[in-house]
Fold this protein.
Amino acid sequence: MEKVYTEENEKKLLRLLNIYDLSTTHEQRKLLLTYLELLFEKNKTLNLTRITDIDSALVLHILDSLLLSKFMLCSEEDSFCDIGTGGGVPGIPLGCVLGCKGLLIDSIGKKISAVNEFAEQLGIQDRIIAKQMRAEEIEAKMKRNFRFVVARAVAKANVVMEYAEPFLMDQ
């Protein structure tokens, strides 16, 4: 397994995050880089991402995901749903830095199994859970249950908004 968590990569990540005034702890950055390592390793046997070099992944997986956190002011009581999580993006990076709970959904069971493995290996399985389901087939107990809904590369914006609406709490 290629080592992703290195001092050099942590410095690269810190520089990227500082550009956008995103503050993280050393432990959070370690989790984020460990996540990429797990993702790259699993991607060798299961197609989870086409982004496989560290520099691109720092921007397209980590930075892009964490930019959402600037708008997600959430407490431990809050929760978010990641629709079409694939390999766990943006849900896993958000779970590494936010204190709220997250449900990551995808229709492909192998991807969900991988994401649950990642959460367990990162020690965030108490906050981040992945479930196999389609957003259109939302379970009654999940309706109006989430403060935030995130998605990446799922569909056109109007379709994503249609998928997300039943998950969102009434404000």
About this structure: Residues 5 and 33 are 5 Å apart (CA to CA). The mean pLDDT is 94. The longest strand covers residues 101-106. The first helix runs from residue 7 to 19.
